[in-house]
Amino acid sequence: MYVTGIGIISAIGNNAHETIHSIKEGKSGIGVLNHISTKHKNDIVVGEVKSSNEELKKIGGISDSKIYSRTSLLGIIAAKEAITDAGINNIKECSTGIISATSVGGMGIIEDLYLDYLNPDNKGKYSEYVDTNECGDSTEKIADHLGIKDYVSTISTACSSSANSIMFGARLIKHGLLDRVIVGGTDSLSRFTINGFISLKLLDREICKPFDAERKGLNLGEGAGFIVLESEKTSEDKKRLCELSGYGNSNDAFHQTGSSPEGTGAYAAMKKALTVSGIEPDKIDYINAHGTGTEQNDLSEGIAIERLFWKNVPCISSTKAFTGHTLGASGGIEAVLSVLSIRHNMIYPSLNFHNPMPELGFIPEKKIITVNPVCNVLSNSFGFGGNTSALIFSRT
Amino acid sequence: METYICGTGLISPQKTFFNNDFLSEIVEYESNFLCCIEPDYKDFLEPSIARRMGRTVKMSIATAKICLKDAGIEIPDAIVTGSALGCMEATENFLLSMINEDEKFLSPTPFMQSIHNAIGAQIALQLKCMNYNFTFVHRGFSFENAVLDGMMLLAEGSAENVLIGGHDEMTERNFTIYDNVGCWKKNNTSAMQLINSTTNGTIAGEGAAFFALSNQVSERNIATLKGIKTIYKPANQIEIENKISELLGENKLTAEDIDVVIYGISGDARFDHSFYHVKDNYFVNNTSTWYKHLCGEYQTSSGFAMWMAAMMCKMQTIPSKVLIGENNRKTIKHIIIYNSFRNIHHSLFLISRC
Amino acid sequence: MDISTDELIDKLKGEIISQLKLEYLKKEDIDPDANLFGSGLGLDSIDALELNVLLEKNYGIKIQSAHVGRKVFKSVRTMAEYILKNKK
Questions:
Q1: Which CATH superfamily is domain C5-86 in?
Q2: Which end of chain B has fewer surrounding CB within 10 Å, N or C?
Q3: Among candidates A321, A324, A332, which has minimal Cα distance to A365?
Q4: pLDDT number for residue C88
């Protein structure tokens, strides 16, 4: 299963080139919230994409009059970049599907118009709007924009969503149901989500500190990340960026929102991914951790990593102090970052890390390091509902 | 390797939560809003656990438990669910309190329940199932995607059994929203009269359908799931019929071999034409049936149809009220389900007797 | 606040039942001195957040730290005593 194209948009850049540039500069994209009006504006910092919806429409080449949620716009931009990167000129030349993922969906539209939707005086007025709330809306907007029809699906398993869409897409190719898939996810900030995370007391008022002993929570972010996966056959004459060599999904079955102290689900997901890849733990060069900066996740994930790697924990970092936690899109965005890590032989820093966690024997990388070569990258995504996923990308 | 259906569970607007009864008593609705007939959830959930659960969560967990009991499975090797709208009630509750309380004093419980994979997660939590757990949320394909994923897991050998489910709830507020954009019939409609309707709109429904799929031969097996196909925005009728031919061809069957076809006729004249075309031109000599007059229209209604197909295989009967015309088949060996949601998400299932 | 501790305990029981959706319990089922968390009612971390919301919404009291919260939410009585001490 080969990755032949990548596309990404987040708080640190509108494409892969800008993203790598920001990482090299050590520039976090987390800051003040601009494009959503909320009572909590001054209490939080977020990883917001710097463009307005109108600007996103221009970047994505969208000029029709359909109603596009911000989630859709971000998704179209990243998916389009991935297709272009993969050198795809004729989407119909072989069977192509899209598996996207989202958790917010079109909530950004409905939360402003909900009372209007319910008002009987508005009969017929919002016909174009109401369906944008559905998770499948952004996927279909992307599919229709790119001309993809052969298989269209959306997954939502909270923060592991787009890692799971990548896994599902890979398996569709393995079963011979498709020749190639565009897989990943997209999510945008919304008042609903901001308030939800505030009610769960999971947010840090400042830039998050993944794996830091003083960590106080996560920063919400937005963005989209897609990769093009192709079978052995269809990618024969193409530039293969790397291979998706392993994947695994498990469930913590511990609590609706919290992770188990022993990191059971996280451990199982990583182990499955290693088994599928046939790669031994000591061959993993870099772990792009889920590392949200919450008390529970980082401890749970850290313990699971130590259970799996013992004293030989590879280089590890969380990129969420760059991008924020992009929820349903995080698996896709971090998959792209994993591919870029292999392409650039670069291991990313965990920004804002200062104090080692006393419970763990490892610390994340504090600076960018060059490893020649980066061969195998493990990317973790763990979501609410105990949904734990891991992907492994390998140099070809 | 075959995929077997070895357990079922269904909560719907009909009296379906007892597996030994196949629509012996049909509720004939004269309403645009069909609600599920629900069991007493105390039989399935401790009150201390059920207290935080919205209606659709309770409905789905109860259905899943009925299904697992039917299949004789304690902990499935995988849990895959599909829902287009997720937990609407919880989403509405959080959204409204956010609006009405001006973003203050927000209770985390409805936010937590509004997360789309809440049901798959709760089932895993209840069963302490740490296995594969996916939730599909793609509109009229949500259930179909879950079914395909289940079949793939079994074919891969990653699982010997998979719990799959499709669920969607209709809330009063959501009914109003969709009423305002012309989804439903203008007046309360007799559900039985939806067939051959010439007016726009359909009737709202809901339900939770769970199935235990297995790759093991067993006396418990109810039916064989031979194949599933989905078609997104078919360009024309030919594309649909080619897909039907593909499904039949892969299973070395012809149109004549199909004993019963279950159509997802919704009564919405804007969207039903492809069903009638297939019935009148492709499956000409087969027994035709329909089901949305029993459960209403919702994006995972194929779950109801799949339950009907499984029961037909098991009981070898067809309830008279689901027939379109006469039943001209003596035995029920092969069944095709042909459904579509608003003529955008078309799906085909082939289910056969074991 | 012009209310006795016992009256407030009784009021709080009703509010706790409502906020935590414990409608299968009656006020008499809740021992005001029993642990709310751990072995008592067996509440969890989400319930702790809900109790914070209750205190803020109904009494205008914001708990500033988890450490303080653990003491305040030990039992219905400790909640009542904290409210009487801190409600403006």
A1: ACP-like (1.10.1200.10)
A2: N
A3: A321
A4: 63
Axis-axis angle for helices B88-100, A191-199 (nearest 10): 90
Distance in angstroms (rounded) separating the CA atoms of residues A76 and A235: 23
User: CA-CA distance, A358 to A356, in Å (whole number)?
Assistant: 6
Rounded CA-CA distance A39/B3 in Å is: 52
| Exposure class string for A322-339: b at 16+ Cβ within 10 A, else e | bbbbbbbbbbbbbbbbbb
pLDDT digits (tens, 9 = 90+) for A7-37: 999 999 999 999 999 999 999 999 999 999 9
A61 φ, ψ (degrees, to nearest 5): 65, 35
A278 by Cβ neighbours in 10 Å (0-12 / 13-18 / 19+) ranks as: exposed
Question: DSSP characters for A194-254?
Answer: HHHHHHTT-B-SSS--TTBTT---B-BB-EEEEEEEE-TTTTTTS---EEEEEEEEEE--S
Q: How far apart are alpha carbons A87 and A64 in whole angstroms?
A: 25
Taking Cα atoms as reference points, which of A212, A140, A194 lies closest to residue B142?
A: A140
Q: Does A256 touch chain C (CB under 8 A)?
A: yes
Q: Which residues are CB-contacts of B45 (< 8 A; sequence separation ≥ 6)? A: B53, B58, B61, B62, B126
Token code pair at residue A12: 């640190």
What's the CA gap between A148 and B143, in Å, rounded? 20
Class (C level, CATH) for B224-353: alpha beta
- Read off the pLDDT of residues B89-108 as tens digits, 9 standing for 90 and up: 999 999 999 999 999 999 99
In the three-class reduction of DSSP (H, G, I as helix; E, B as strand; rest coil), residue B353 is classed as strand
Nearest-Cα distance to chain B for C2, in Å, is: 24
Residue B27: Cβ within 10 Å count? 13
Contacts of B104 in chain C (CB under 8 A): 57
Q: Which amino acid is at A283?
A: K
CA A142 to CA A153: how far, in whole Å?
A: 11
**Shortest CA gap A200–chain C (Å):** 7
The chains in contact with chain A, meaning 3 or more Cβ pairs closer than 8 Å, are: B, C
Of the partner residues B48, B104, B108, the one whose CB lies closest to the CB of residue C42: B48
Q: Phi/psi of residue B189, each to 5°?
A: -120, 145
Alpha carbon of A362: minimum distance to chain B alpha carbons (Å): 27
> For B154, what's the count of Cα atoms within 13 Å in the CB-facing half-sphere?
28
Contact residues, C window 50-79, toward B, CB-based 8 Å cutoff: 50, 53, 56-57
Mean pLDDT computed over every residue of chain A: 97
Residue contact C53–A256, C-beta within 8 A:
no
d(CA B208, CA B210) in angstroms, rounded, equals 7
Q: Indicate the CATH number for domain B3-214.
A: 3.40.47.10
DSSP C41: S
Q: For residue B121, what are the CA distances in angstroms to A194, B116, B134? A: 22, 9, 9
Look at the block and give the residue holding tokens 């996927």: A139
Question: Using the beta-carbon criterion (under 8 Å), do B95 and A192 form an inter-chain contact?
Answer: yes
Cβ–Cβ below 8 Å for A140 and B139: yes
Q: Which residues contact B188 (CB under 8 A, 6 or more apart)?
A: B30, B31, B32
Q: What is the pLDDT of residues B256-277, one digit of tens each?
A: 999 999 999 999 999 999 999 9
- One-letter amino acid at B6 equals C
Region A353-379: mean pLDDT is: 97
The closest of B123, B153, B149, B124 to A265, measured between CA atoms, is B124
- Whether A204 contacts A218, CB under 8 Å: yes
Contact B336, B262 (CB under 8 A): yes
Nearest to A140 by CA among A90, A84, A68, A87: A68
- The topology (CATH level 3) of A2-394 is Peroxisomal Thiolase; Chain A, domain 1 (3.40.47)
Angle at the Cα of B353 from the Cα atoms of B351 and B354, rounded to 5 degrees: 115
